[in-house]
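INSTRUCTION: Work out how this chain folds

Token vocabulary: learned, describes local backbone geometry

RECORD BEGINS BELOW THIS LINE
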Amino acid sequence: MLYLFRIIKNKYICILISTKIMERIGLFFGSDTGCTDDFTKDFIEEWGAEDIDVKEIGDATIEDFNQYKVMILGLSTWYDGDLQSDWESFFEDFKTIDFTGKIVSIYGLGDQIGYGEYFVDGIGILGEVILNNGGTVIGYWPTEGYRFSDSVAIVKENENLFYGLAIDNDNESQLTEQRLRKWVIQVKTELKMALLKEHQLAV
């Protein structure tokens, strides 16, 4: 539970607010070889499926995105910084979505050794569109401990952070479970605080 302190009619009172996430969450992901699909299943198990509606991006429409205030996006990065194929096909539509008032987190799979110059670029490609179109991105993730040379996923204002969770199952699969668990806790906390802030402004 969270406590919201407000002054109402000259009295300083404490309002008890449930921290349960009431918003339905839209999870949109794309997978070519099944690796992102497998990770998405692990993510849903860690998060808890009761809050999440899952849709493959190859079957998604702009209207699907418009249904949700809170979204989680998942993808892999291919070759020289290319989006996963279904995300690539949807990308022109994605760029037209109005993300104003929406809260989005992103996870991405990449290979920091084989494609170190383009590591998880897809996270940054999607993240920048969301921010440019009025949305809020949560779940920034530290770059410390990774061995890449460059990435579009690095936050422009802070080179020590990615726009989302970076996963490398090709080279660091032993760290995936730990990273996932920590990120889920982080995103849930940041999401609750963002929704609480909106509630405070509305009261």
Q: What stands out?
A: The chain has five helices and twelve strands. Residues 21-202 form a domain with the Rossmann fold fold (CATH 3.40.50.360). Residues 176-202 form the longest helix (27 residues).
